[in-house]
């Protein structure tokens, strides 16, 4: 099983996270209701087992908690992948959510990079700040060592747009981490 367990503690957050790329239970508690919903959706649609317990300085805002969860999830993802032998590596997906449409492309390349193109019409979704979506995925991509392109093609509801993005990332990751052979998918022989 491809799994990892990471703990991170700073003056702003305390996070314990377990990830299994091959499935398992999903338990998420960050103190940010909508973010919990998105993380659970990400794990479900990616086919991952995920346990997250995060405590953060939510009296300030949700930024530090979401970003640090992204850091830890990225580290766990990278560790769980190991040598990446046999994975598909690339994937791209479109996901609709009512009036919204999201596009995501991923390359599990070992080269961290993100392009994030989304303009959310509402600043907040409950206690969750819409702009934190980009911070979460940036932290995840950099720490996972992946190239991630995210685009909200269109939409008028920030909740639907964000949910479509999380589900599209999940579906792309599900495809990209699938094992289809034993060879590292690179002419260099290493990712």
What does this entry look like structurally?
The chain is of the alpha+beta class and 191 residues long. It has one domain: Ribosomal Protein S5, domain 2. 35% of the residues lie in helices and 31% in strands. The chain contains 4 helices and 10 strands, in the order βββαβαβββββαβα. The protein has helices spanning 33-46, 63-81, 132-144, 158-177; strands at 3-9, 13-20, 26-29, 49-56, 90-97, 100-107, 113-117, 124-125, 128-129, 147-154. Strands 1-2-4-3 form a 4-stranded mixed sheet, covered by helices on one side. Strands 5-6-10-7 form a 4-stranded mixed sheet, covered by helices on one side. Helix 1 runs parallel beside helix 4 (158-177) and helix 2 (63-81) runs parallel beside helix 3. The radius of gyration is 16 Å and the shape is globular.
- Protein structure class: alpha+beta
Taking all Cα atoms into account, the compactness measure Rg is 16 Å
* Tally of structural domains: 1
Low-confidence regions: none
Proportion of residues in extended strands: 25-35%
- The end-to-end span amounts to 20 Å
